[in-house]
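Researcher: For the record, we're logging two predictions in this thread. I'll number them. Prediction 1 follows.
Model: Prediction 1, sequence and structure:
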Amino acid sequence: MQRAAASSSRQHAYRLMEQLGLRWVRLYDARHAVLKYLAVNGVPDVILAAWAGHTNAAFTKARYVAPDAEDLRSAADALDGLHGVG
């Protein structure tokens, strides 16, 4: 029963994306993107965990919030400032 509800919700979301002219994204990827966005914008870990439906904030952070190349670029730019580059 739960699997059928998830499938129905997923199909509904994809129809909405199409109707609104939005780029199609997997809901799984959207979940990761939202949690990462919230994390890098200062939302506390316990709130992220609650948003994701988890009881363990460390699990949520480790599973859904991993830095990517773009995140690391801003750290590299900051380091350049320390060295007087840029």
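Researcher: Logged. Prediction 2.
Model: Prediction 2, sequence and structure:
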Amino acid sequence: MTPRIENGQITGSLTHIKHYLGEMYFFRAYLYFNKLVALGDFPIITEEVPEDYNKIRQLSRRRPRNEVARFILANLDKAFLFMLPIQGMLEMPLTKLYLRIETLD
């Protein structure tokens, strides 16, 4: 989980906090999936980007398609772990991604 949640800086029901965190992972995976289909290789950004030109260039390097696909799967796994059960919510994107990965190589 994120440090702010672990340190108690975000208050509320832990169940709902985890669910919203899971939704964030789901939507990040969804956005990266769309970029994977449209562009193939794509940068993976997992931290806040400072206003430093060299750091931005370093973080903007494109990653190979298979690495982006693994990143998407990891995000969907985290979403599945944190989210409250919603019938069919995560199974469809996972199935679609697995089918799509077969064509990436």
